[in-house]
Amino acid sequence: MIVRLEVNGERRLVDLPPLTRLLDALRGPLGLTGTKEGCGEGECGSCTVLLDGDPVNACLVATAQCEGRSVTTVEGLGALDGRARETGGLSLLQAAFVTEGGAQCGICTPGMLIAAEALLRETVDGANRKPTDTEIREAVAGNICRCTGYQRIVDSIAQAAALRRRVSPADWVRENLPFAKAEGTRGLL
Amino acid sequence: MSLPELSLHGLERPDSLGSVCERLAERAARGEKTVLLAGGTDWFVERHVAPATDGSEAELVLDVSRLPELRGISASGDTLWIGAATTYLELRRHPVVAARVPLLPAMSKDVGAVQIQARGTLGGNLATASPAADGVGALAALDATVHLLSVRGPRSIAISDYFTGYKRSVRAADEVITGFTVQMPGEGSFQYWRKVGTRLAQAISKVALAGVAEVSDGQVTRLGLGMVSVAPTTAFLPTVRALALRRPLDRIADSALDAATQADVSPIDDVRSTGDYRRHVSGALVREFFRTLRSR
């Protein structure tokens, strides 16, 4: 079945059996391997992507159900952030995970970032307020990390929420990413 | 059918509820299996754990997730309509639901995590007919009416008449659950939701209780209860209801509540809990419901 969808702002087309999991469509023909498979049954959140703005487990979504819909993966976060040029291609949220130690082995990180992005869109972008600690923990409650103990992930999201509201990204990079070179920080995650 | 066999399933996206009914009727008449797919949060998990087969039984999947007739929430007077393909996240976000039936967003918040809430639907929860279905517990407490449709016409039944056994129901092979109607509790009503699971998110209930009560002049005038994971189907706790309804609240003794609760539940040991623990928690939740109701 041919399915037309928008992925990270670009119109894409895939021709796959209709019940193919969105996760497999992304990692296969769409070539976006940032989205990880963990448990494969909706428990761990590693494969979280945004579907029309809401976080979903890509392992539980049929590709055919994405016809005409918008999908955002971790690869799209920097691309969608107009200020990402100043953080070496990373969104502020991604950069905060670097500086606050929110990423370790990296398997859960794409899903964590997407779940956090959904929260920041709702609270910071939508309601112009910082999320509470409880809201942050609830937002990533469906994302399991076996490395960090979660505190640094929560700190990263809180940091990103604070910066997304008020500080100039250029200033933030100068203060927090002294190692950021012209070629950017891509590859750190 | 296992995960590697997903490619063997056909999928159709009917453009109207009428087309779904016609397709279901044709296939049911030929004895062919059809799955109505909404959020997929159960169906895909079942595929993940299922053993491989020879592929000959690959049922046809009809995607009903975006049929307009099955979506949406609307209020008319004191009656609330919830389309079967309404997601938990939509229930959490709806202002009328939040104001009048806070039980529903409270329950929805405890279903999986937000990724599951964005996909899972109330209709799917009922269709799966698991006794662990949190959404059905809430519908039971609200004494919801279930609306079904087929080429033979519509029918509406009380949710207490829906189940015929473990994961079995009165829904025929050619019928679609179109939605639910609920008489919204009045101002000042008491609505209760408490889920006991391994952790706050992503847990399937060991036991959960949904409750709705209205009290007038110290007497219980409306009482709805739905308990999860304590019987082969969602438990409606008829003995507890009979004990307390139209009774003065201050004359409903805990000992009588305990006896009634134990008469209404028949929990088993399984991977998530034990029958003994579930019996203990069942009693505690019912007592807490009435204790909180009395103290208001």
Structural account:
Chain A has a 5-stranded mixed sheet. Chain A has 2 domains: about 1-75, Ubiquitin-like (UB roll) (Roll), CATH 3.10.20; about 80-170, DNA polymerase, domain 1 (Orthogonal Bundle). Chain A is about 40% helix and about 10% strand. The model of chain A is unreliable at about 180-189 (pLDDT under 50). In chain A, β1 (about 1-5) and β2 form a beta hairpin. The radius of gyration of chain A is 16 Å and the shape is globular. Chain A has helices at about 20-25, 75-80, 90-100, 110-125, 135-140, 150-165, 170-175, and strands spanning about 1-5, 10-15, 50, 55, 70. Chain A has about 190 residues and is an alpha+beta fold. The longest helix of chain B has 20 residues, at about 275-295. In chain B, the strands form 4 sheets. In chain B, strands 4-5-10-6-7 form a 5-stranded antiparallel sheet. A 3-stranded parallel sheet of chain B has the order 1-3-2, covered by helices on one side. In chain B, strands 11-12-13 form a 3-stranded antiparallel sheet. By secondary structure, chain B is of the alpha+beta class. The interface of A and B includes residues 17 and 51 of A.
Low-confidence stretches of chain A: 182-189
Largest sheet of chain A: 5 strands, mixed
Class inferred from helices and paired strands of chain B: alpha+beta
How many H/I helical runs of chain A? 7
| E-strand count of chain A | 5
CATH architecture of the largest domain in chain A: Orthogonal Bundle
Please give the most extensive interface between any two protein chains, plus how many residues each contributes: A-B, 31 and 31 residues
Helicity range of chain B:
25-40%
End-to-end separation of chain A in angstroms reads 35 Å
The number of strands of chain B is 13
Order of helices and strands of chain B: EHEHEEEHHHHHHEEEEEEEEHHH
Task: Give the key terms.
heterodimer; A: 189 residues; alpha+beta; Ubiquitin-like (UB roll); DNA polymerase, domain 1; 2 domains; 5-stranded mixed sheet; disordered C terminus; B: 296 residues; 5-stranded antiparallel sheet; globular
